[in-house]
Amino acid sequence: MQTANLPPNEDALYKEPVTLLNSGKTLKRLKAIEDISYACSNLFTSDLVTVAHNVLKPFCELTGTDYGVVLLLKKPEEQIYIVASYGFPEKFEETYNNKLKFTLHSKDVSESWPSLRSIFKKQIILIKNTETMNVGYSRFFRQSIGKNKISSIASVPIVVNNHSVGAITLYFKKQHEFDDEELSFIKATTNIITGTIERNHLLEAAKKSELELKQANEVLKQVNQELDSFVYIASHDLREPLRTIESFVSILQAKLSNNNDKEQSGYFNRIVNATQRMRRLIQDLTNLARASRDNKDKEYEEIDLNNILTEIQFELTAFIQSKNAEIILPDRLPKVMGDREKISSVLKNLIANGIKFNKSKTPRVCVSLSEDANFDPGKVCICVEDNGIGIEKDYQEKIFGLFQRLHSQDEYEGTGAGLAIVKKILEKYGCAIWVESEKGKGSKFYFTLPRMQLRKYSDHG
Known about the structure:
By secondary structure, the protein is an alpha+beta fold. The protein has helices at residues 10-41, 48-61, 92-100, 114-121, 139-145, 180-255, 262-292, 305-315, 317-322, 340-356, 418-428, and strands at 67-74, 79-86, 125-127, 152-160, 163-172, 301-304, 326-328, 335-338, 364-369, 379-386, 433-437, 443-450.
């Protein structure tokens, strides 16, 4: 079908180029939103100045703006800062911020300023024709634009956590029609800026919290080190006067040995028992302080638990025989890492407790390897089980506290520091200890140790 002779359609001649033009603007705006979003996503700062300078220029260019500003309210003085500007003379921002120093309460500041109206109402202010509305400007603004006239204005609030912190204001010399697409572009751009600020406020708050936590941990570490040093030194210094007391008590006992005064003899026995208990307390304090002191040469040496258990069994021979106890050891345990003396102390303490806190005619302590898929593969879990008196559930956490005793001195000897020392040793290696027990049904103490890592050798030959 031929159409060459048809009369020209004026609508067809003009509509197609306009559609193409609008399409081009849409693509540019979408591209600008993408670029602005990408630029903001790489900003890890809550500083609005940095964000504003990355956004304002493309924002103004794609809306046909002649002048543009990003205003920010800085508390507590509520000074109005211009953090970015477009189309204004050089040093516009510097003069506005440093010489004029406008605040919300300045006599020259008026609520008729579009930026302030937008901030106060937390709404977009659109003025298509400034001659039909009461629009205010600062004298410095009028001087900066010279003879030019402002016909249309758009001001968008920047709202963070429901508080207006500033505004983006666009000024047009010619009267401007704000279509829906342009308004969507303005809103989308402002949302990107707001989202960037909110995100980075959270990041800075998280960094601040992390720094505060790190500083608190450093202070705590220093306090613990000082406390450990104090305990270590004090426990050593206490031994000397204790020896003096013991020596003079021995001398007095020898001199008065022929005296058959039972009351006097009872006093001496009480002094001897008290000094012996004091000696055990001092020794436990020393062991507690030693548990946290570093020995870099031994902290991560290779340890064969099987050898340690054999040595412990030998050391406790007299105690085991006196209690008619039985120690059941596994065929084989894996190798671990740590300070041999400290790890030996952990096992010895748990085995000895299993025998001591036991009313059975034949106390029995069984050491075994505990296997569980949920355990950290870098750790070995050991179980020390006994058929002793057991522990009530309410007290199972308390027993790991320093000098926590569940029984009187007459029932069971000891200071109550043993399990606290064990816990402190294990925590030094990032390991844990816990107990499963019922009163009268024995206890199972579980604890972890760093597993011995096999060294990998590469063949370069």
